[in-house]
Amino acid sequence: MTPTFRNVLLTLTTFCVAGLIQPALAVDCSLVTEDSEISNLPVDLLPLSVGSKSGWVLPLDQLKPLRGDEESQKIVGLINQTLSSAGKSFAFVMPPPRVLEIPTEVIVEAEQYLNFSPDTLTSMRENYDSLVNGFSSYGVVTPNLAEWFASTPNTFFKADHHWTVDGSYLAAEATWDELWSAGVRRFPNSNNILFAPTGTETSVNEGSYGKLLRDFCDQNIPMEEYIYPTVDVISSPDEDTTAEDLLFGDVELDQFGVLLLGTSYSAPSSNLQFEQALSMWLQADVVNIAIGGGQLTSSSEVLISDSSLLEKADLVIWEAPPSNFQTDAHEFRQVAASLISYCHNPAEVDLGLILPTGEKSDWIGLPDKTTVVQLHIPDISAGIVRIHTEYEDATSNYFDILKMGRVQASENSPYWRTFIGNLTEDGTITTPARIKVEIMNSSEDHTVGVYGCKLLDEE
After folding, report:
1. What are 347's strand-pairing partners?
2. Cα–Cα distance for residue pair 27/219, rounded to 1 Å
3. 313 burial class (0-12, 13-18, 19+ CB within 10 angstroms)?
4. How many Å apart are CA 54 and CA 6, to the nearest integer?
5. How confident is the model at residue 349 (pLDDT cuts 50, 70, 90)?
6. Percentage of the chain with pLDDT > 90?
7. Closest CA to 209 of 360, 408, 448, 10
């Protein structure tokens, strides 16, 4: 029998549920069984709803409250302050929650299947706005992309969690606009080189949710085709070419360098064109070190192996989805460590520390003003290393360093780095007097080198 209403509800049971809520599509869906291989199955996406007519896929996890705390905001404020002291500008770009951009009729259709209230969306928008305001309160350029996306269709894919090319170009425009308000004013002038569209290409997005449904539930979720402009440097335009022909007019290539950190929203492998959109709006070359599938931290690992990328940058943009924020600020600390310190001349604290299996080190004293700890662990490329800290006032804490093994071998570094200072209300950094090092879930002994680094303006 063909159902009159096509809506699939996936659960963590062994099949796609049919008959629990009618009408629904009855389909066997062996997602999780004793014999199934689920190592690559994103079960955290479940349950999810598929729109009967629209094809929009809505996972329940996208309705969870966004996380973020004041410590994370302070740390991003410290990044902004430190880069500003070094003569650089900084912007923090948060892709808005996809669920805010899904058409209303899709949300209404999904309510009965995912058991949520429309008030959830109101709370999520307020939550996102609060995060934007929080980071902005520390002087950080933080465009409110939810405002920009609210009246624009097609900013997210139907069966994927990423923004579309339309969304990435709108995000780039919003970033440019917010930077302009902050005094970073990139604008065409009368010279002969510019970044502009030179043609178009067509690509297909299979969709993170669509792939799940096709592979595990035998659902015919269509892939989404999209067209994007190719953006290149145009030098020496013809004399007859007008500014209107070139979209932005001709501009001077003034060696204004932009460094982009981020996730799969920005990664070249995703081909969602945020890098190209930024180069067009900012009229500048963008060095893109964003890495997909690596949480917030992976792209910052590239800076450990090549700090010159940061040294050459006039503007640093960090794209970070709030859906990736954790309940603590450990990942923010890890990224901050590579943006507030080059670690060019680190203090050699202990170059022969032996860590037996499953044990912490003894307490290790640190030089004054050590704000960043750098560890040399050449035989581990992924995992978690925990730094236990103790301060002069006898308070203590711990900070995790996460490596997910997503960095290419040529850019991978044997060093692990994190920011270990405590930030007071007035922005003062209190540094620990000593630390302990612990390699989590290790089954081997390791030899670790321990170094201490200072802020950019103190090196």
Report:
1. 452
2. 9
3. buried
4. 10
5. very high
6. 58
7. 10
Contact 120, 344 (CB under 8 A): no
> Which tokens is 229 given?
């402009």
DSSP 163: B
CA quadruple 267, 269, 273, 278: dihedral sign: positive
The amino acid at residue 250 is D
Find the angle CA(137)-CA(138)-CA(142) to the nearest 5 degrees. 70
The residue type of 240 is D
Locate 444 and state its tokens: 């081997």
pTM (two decimals): 0.88
Amino acid at 310: L
In DSSP terms, which residues pair with 384 in a beta bridge?
402
Tens of pLDDT, residues 404-436: 988 887 788 999 999 999 998 787 899 999 999
Which pair of structure tokens corresponds to residue 354?
A: 């032996």
Measured between alpha carbons, how far is 73 from 76 in angstroms, rounded to an integer? 5
Q: What is the DSSP letter of 314?
A: S
Strands 257-261 and 285-288: parallel
Q: Which two tokens stand for residue 196?
A: 């502009």
- Let me know: does 56 contact 316? Beta carbons within 8 Å: no
Instruction: Please give the single-letter amino acid code of residue 28.
Output: D
Cα–Cα distance measured from residue 420 to residue 22, given in angstroms and rounded to the nearest whole number: 54
Alpha carbon distances (Å) from 142 to 91, 93, 319, 418? 6, 6, 10, 23
Q: At what angle do helices 298-305 and 330-340 cross, to 10 degrees?
A: 30
Contacts of 64 (CB under 8 A, 6+ apart): none
The DSSP bridge partners found for residue 348 are 451
